[in-house]
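Example (one chain per record):
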Amino acid sequence: MKKQLFVLTLLGLVCVPLRAAAQVAPPAAPPPQVSPPKGRDLWKATADAPALPKPPIAPAVPSLPAPPAVAPAAPPAPALPAPPTPLPPPPDLSKFDLDFPGGQPVELIQAIRKATEKPLNVIVPEEYADTPLPALKMKGVTVPQLFAALEAASRKTVPVVTGTYYGGPGGKPQVQYQQFKASYGFMTTGIPREDSIWYFYSEQPTPPPPPPPESQPKEPRTCRFYRLDPLLDTYKIEDITTAVETGWKMLGETPGEAKPEMMYHKDTKLLIAVGHPEKLAVIEEVLARLGDAVQHSHDFAPAHPPGKGKVEPARP
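Predicted structure:
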């Protein structure tokens, strides 16, 4: 009996949840879809909508007074420069008069020493010792004034050949020039004094290099002999050689070419010359012109000296 009651109780516990689950309410129907209002309905819905509450207005905050204006700080005053060191007074230099006729730097120094009757310390380099100086005539000047004026007067601009190019039009050389500022004078270091040491300088352009040798070699030196006995009755040997040497000097010297030489042989009355043919041609030209002058004088000379010789009477 008890077993049956227990079985029934278990069955009742199992069947009650199943029955309750079967009696669950059906699912609710979906809510109806409401279309948004359009046109007139939208205007009416908007008009009937309750007004939104206005946000509360914040109470006014009293404004604070503006801070007082602060003037910008003034920049610091610049430091005053230190006063310059006063220069020493110029030395008391001797004044003198000078009458220099012109010459070399050493000669000018000697003239200044003679005019001032005082020593003058000057260095003249050997390569500048032959520099020609102009004539100077001064009154009441000092040595620095004289040397400054001499240096200013020597300044000049000269053209200098800086290069020679070959192969131009017609095969002629093309020369390129450059301006050079030349000057000379006496200089010293520091403030000029009576015991200052001066030195002479000269800034001159460097001479151009000699032209290149010609492509064709010259003829070698040769020796020639010239008879002078027909001319020695009228001219001296010194007159003939002087005329030849004058012609050589006017022609000029060719760089790298030896000078021609002449020697008179007294026993044979021959003039012996050695040199290049173009220089020996000058001797031949001089002798030819002198021979023409001698022949011309003989043509116009009388056949007999005056008062001598026999004069035949004229035939009818």
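Caption: Residues 277-299 form the longest helix (23 residues).
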